[in-house]
Structure prediction request, 721 residues.
Amino acid sequence: MLEALTPFLTQDWIAVFNDLPQIIVAGLATGFQYALIAFGFVLIYRATETVNFAQGDIMMLAMFVGLGLQALGAPWYFVMIGAIILVGLFGAGLDLLVFRHMAGQSPLATVIITIAIGFVLRLGVDAVTYFMQGKFPQEESLSPPDLGDQISILGVSIDPFDILLIAGALIVVIGLFFFLSRTRMGIAIQASSQNQLAAYYQGINVRSLNTLVWTLAAAISAFAGILFAMSKTFTSSVGLSLTGGIMAYAAAVIGGLGSLQGAVLAALMLGVVDNFVKTLSGVHPLISANAGLIFLLIVIIVKPSGLFSQTQAKKV
Amino acid sequence: MKFLFKQSYDDDIKLLKHSGYIRASAFFFLLAALLPIYFMWAGVDATTLKHVIHILILSICASGLMILTGFTGQVSLGHGAFFALGAYGMHFLLKMGVPWHFSFFLTPLIIGLFGYIIARPTLRMSGVTLAITTLLFMLFIEQAFKQWGVMGGGNGFKTPKFSDKESWFFFVFQPIAAALTDHDPENRRDVLLLARSASKYALYYGALLTLVFVIWIMNNLVRSRLGRTLIAIRDSEVSARSMGVHLNHYKSLSMGLSAAIGALAGIFNSYNDGFVSPESVNFITSIVLLLIVVVGGLGSIHGAIFGAITYVFLREILFPELADFFQAWANNGGGQVAESLAWFFNIGGLGDIFFAALVLLILFYEPLGLYARWKKTEAFFQTFPFYRAGTFKRQRSYNKTERLK
Prediction:
């Protein structure tokens, strides 16, 4: 037990602190990917009360759709837009074909349906790749846009792709917050998330709003997936892996499930912490690979309601 | 239809309510107990026996998960971890020199306690935390096993035979097997073969008795205060809490119970596979276990067994058989169609996809799974010819949020 802690004592902390800005920027880049997935996850949970464990696998689907588009010779921006549109439509189809009909069923059945859909997606992508290429998908990656060399801002050298990633994610997140809190439709979504029946009585078309929410969530995770695929390698199990979907779910929980701001902030924290622990030298691989789990455990012990939770116990 | 004349209050809560129950249970138990004898007599190959044992093991594990998911309404996405922990724990204890029988009981106990300890703090957070934490925990366990040098690290380890020549089972088994098959007791090779198959048959009976034990526990659980508490939590956490149920404690308790039963199944699985490796702790196992429970029917004891049979049949018997069939057809000049069909059924994981798709269909049209089908068929014959589909009509309601904390 103590051996696991010695690397923290023998660390060259001055060098680490010199690298800190760089670590934080790289961590934010990862964190924003988690944040986007977590955003979709929480959005669906808030609006339709469905815990969607297929979110990570929808992201994975977007990656492979991107791979297919790239194989057709599309440039990177077309790959991104095409994947977002196609996977967004897939999300809408999912709601129209499956989840719309699950309204009123027990929440447990809905959760398990999402798990089964994720499972089908993952194995389906495997099988389709096998069908097309005669082998199962290996470590794949999308070619990132050619944005030139590392640039240095205030002495911190940054990959230009990270800037694109952070800027894109920021725009999307802020835009969505604006949409949810300022526009008529966004407020309708919030209303139906609080009480579907009351919202329905007010003349809100809850059904089509739910379809919109699913489309949005799938499109956001597609965006996250394409950004992920351009910066790292991935396999078909990325939807439930420690570098992909699971971290987003963990972020949603840490942020107090049901709080969009919380999920985004928690995802950013997770990204930075994860990156920070990985750069420390000599840390036991079990610790550095499971920073998310350890962070989650600490939050559970310190603040079990989640870092930014606002929801209260339901009154009967 | 049988009309019962109840003569005491015990009649309401008896485990076997009337002679029909006794007859049916005895029938199925005898069927299961005599199956290996039939296998021996008919000379069925070892792979089939392995699949049957696999069904028993999955039934045990799914019964455990049924307590958590079916009765308490909590989702565990990392049940494969307890499955593997059982195998690792058992063989670690054996390696430390703990006697077999002792470690067989000690392992589920420790893993069950472990499950409780993991779940307890986790459940202080909101609803699905348990699912996500178990998921993270499973990944942690997988990596930890890869680092565990004593147990073979990333390569895993081979398990010894389940039962050796000195065991009492061998003395019972040997004369029966020798009578049913054409083994020569003087031939050394035949005796060795017999010893090997004796170990397999001992595993079968061990798993069968464990399954019966688990089913008995489950039946008693449902009738007891604890079981009613768990079902109350599933149906409404708010109401259960208002009745004075300590939510975290009981949810963790059901997690501990199902972890212990999962570990028990894991022990048998390690013997059935013949080896244990960190790769056996994966999502596929965990999610398949969950899907088995759903296919069978959430909240029913039969369900776990129905689900396990469906899964093993689809995944390990039907699809390989179909692949072989089309391959044979293609070899006999079946042409392009047979060739591509054979190729299609040879895709790895196809059985899993079909199983998951089956789950989607079942949740859609029969949310209570195969068990509901079973009940409907039963009702059809009981009330013949007055069966109405409306009897089982489900009530739908608008979602109301039940976010606690």
Chain B has a mean pLDDT of 85. Chain B touches chain A through 57 residues (CB under 8 Å).
